[in-house]
Amino acid sequence: MMNDKSEYLYSRSKFVEAYQNREVWVEEVPRWMANIKLNTHEPSTVMMIGCLTEDHDDVGLWERYANFGKGCVLGFDANWLSERAGVAIRRVSYDADYLRDFVNAGLATLQSHYEENPEDCDELAQFATMFVLDLYAFKDPRFCSEREVRISRLTLTDDTAEFGLVDPGGQRIDNQEVPALQIQQRRGAYGPTRFVELPLWDENEKPVIRSLGYGPNIDVEAEASVKDAASTHPEITQWKSDLPLR
């Protein structure tokens, strides 16, 4: 999960604001469905999120997330993650106006579906669920320099499970089912953190990691150790940042 819950609270508050000041006409039933999904998914589900970026060599990201340039950056095959690992992938939007338009478009879609199939509450609920869950793809404009891309996988809360969550499995882009992944837990800087470990190897045992970049301030011995570990995978492109990070 995100270590800063204010990120979701920001998009949620903007959603509520746009919902209350909606620019489209929506009947009570689709409005109720969107509202109930917004409020009921939070206690019953947990969105597991991986925060990536499109910018592989940014000074701010080196400073904040790679020990002031002493770490490394991994480049993943985004298509593989989206198509084969059973995760949703979204480019984060930092545009408040776009979020408002998104909410109005989503409400209009719910209204249209309700007009066409007023008795089909199950499908209306599915539309409303997808509508609400896409809120994780919005973020405060002041973070726009990160150019974030988020991968996400929805898990269900379960008090009887070891770490209180169950992964119901996923679905690839070609609609093939992806097996459930084991919920695990690690101890990090923000205390115990639950996670799902995505498969990062394809059917031929080749890594989904496509590139490996070394920070501008990486320790010589650390760099040599990582290079040695990566030497068995010549398909991984390696490079080093020359940013003058001090």
Secondary-structure topology with pairs:
Blueprint: H1 6-20, H2 28-44, E1 45-53, H3 59-65, E2 72-76, H4 78-84, E3 88-91, H5 96-116, H6 121-133, E4 148-157, E5 165-166, E6 170-171, E7 177-178, E8 183-188, E9 191-196, E10 209-214, H7 220-230, E11 237-240
Parallel strand pairs: 10-11
Antiparallel strand pairs: 1-4, 2-10, 3-4, 4-5, 6-7, 8-9
Helix pairs in contact: 1-5, 2-5, 2-6, 5-6
What does the model show?
- It contains seven helices and eleven strands.
- By secondary structure, the protein is an alpha+beta fold.
- Strands 1, 3, 4 and 5 form a four-stranded antiparallel beta sheet that branches. It has a three-stranded mixed beta sheet with strand order 2-10-11. The protein has a two-stranded antiparallel ribbon with strand order 6-7.
- The chain is globular and about 65 Å long.
- The mean pLDDT is 87.
Short description:
By secondary structure, the chain is of the alpha+beta class. It has helices at 6-20, 28-44, 59-65, 78-84, 96-116, 121-133, 220-230, and strands spanning 45-53, 72-76, 88-91, 148-157, 165-166, 170-171, 177-178, 183-188, 191-196, 209-214, 237-240.
Order of helices and strands: HHEHEHEHHEEEEEEEHE
Total helices: the number is 7
Tell me the total number of β-strands.
11
How big a fraction of the residues is strand?
Answer: 15-25%
Query: Which class best fits the helix and strand makeup?
Result: alpha+beta
Major sheet attributes? 4 strands, antiparallel
Overall pLDDT metric: 87
Q: What is the C-alpha radius of gyration, as a whole number of Å?
A: 21 Å
